[in-house]
Amino acid sequence: MAGAVEAKLVELGLTLPGVVPPLASYQPAVRSGVYVYTSGQLPMVDGKLAVTGKVGAEVTPDEAKELAKICALNALAAVKSVAGDLDRIARVVKVVGFVASASDFTGQPAVINGASELLGAVLGDKGVHARSAVGVAVLPLDAPVEVEVQVELVDA
């Protein structure tokens, strides 16, 4: 049975995806004490990237913001895979977002707002977090955006 967080996802018209399989030698998420750290999550949908390229060139900032939401959904799926239940999230502690950027693109914070806003919409006050939004030259598979999340769990 889905908990309150997954019910909120449904209310928002979103579906929690399956965990994206690792592309290399790592785990999608690991737990250490009351914290869960996700690996960088790409905007994978049904096993593939919906869009590739640099933000500010082949990808618009608005498209990238939507892709950051997908990354955040994938991060929640990774958290659930080790926490068992998203209702165990006490709070999102930190979000780090990477934006593959054209050389003159400086709107990384607005892009990563897609992930931050999704976490806030789904988790309310528990979704408020510290954050970094970093522009990079290239990301794996030529993804436009990558997001990693750290959450604190209610230890049950």
List keywords for this structure.
156 residues; alpha+beta; 3 helices
Helix/strand order: HEEEEHEHEE
Main beta-sheet strand count, sense and barrel state:
5 strands, mixed
User: What's the average pLDDT?
Assistant: 96
Count of helical stretches: 3
Principal-axes shape call: globular
Strand order of the largest sheet: 1-2-7-5-6
The percent range for helix content is 25-40%
Rg, please?
Answer: 15 Å
- Gap between N and C termini: 18 Å
Quick one: how many beta strands? 7
What portion of the residues fall into strands of 2 or more residues?
25-35%
Question: How would you portray this structure in words?
Answer:
The protein has a five-stranded mixed beta sheet, with helices on one face. A two-stranded antiparallel sheet has the order 3-4. The mean pLDDT is 96. It is 30% helix and 26% strand. Helix 2 crosses helix 3. The protein is built from three helices and seven strands; from the N terminus they run H-E-E-E-E-H-E-H-E-E. The protein has helices at 4-11, 61-83, 108-123; strands spanning 29-32, 35-38, 44-45, 48-49, 89-100, 130-136, 145-153. It is α+β, with helices and mostly antiparallel strands and 156 residues long. Strand 3 (44-45) and strand 4 form a beta hairpin. The relative contact order is 0.24.
